[in-house]
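Review form for a predicted model. The reviewer records the input and the model, then writes brief findings.
Reviewer: anonymous (R2)
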Amino acid sequence: MNNTLKTSVRYITAGYCSACKVYAPVIEKAVTELGLPWTKLDAEDDCREVAHLNVSALPTTIVMIAGREHRRWEGAYSLKKTLELLTTPQ
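Model under review:
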């Protein structure tokens, strides 16, 4: 993914979400490998921002390009699939 377009990732999680706990190290490794800035939002602590993003399931990952949503997915995936989702044009 071309980071010159100011690509960033928002990862929405919650302490009670078991799938989130499994996926957290995967998404962290993926964004680190790609050198993408990312923000981890807690659905309980950051409820206003999460509501503004229209999150309806956890975990949710949102790819932003130039401040606009480019792609989103819900659920936990393998590192290979996550890297594919982060780097393949929609």
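Findings: The radius of gyration is 12 Å.
Further findings: The longest helix spans residues 18-34.
Recommendation: see findings above.
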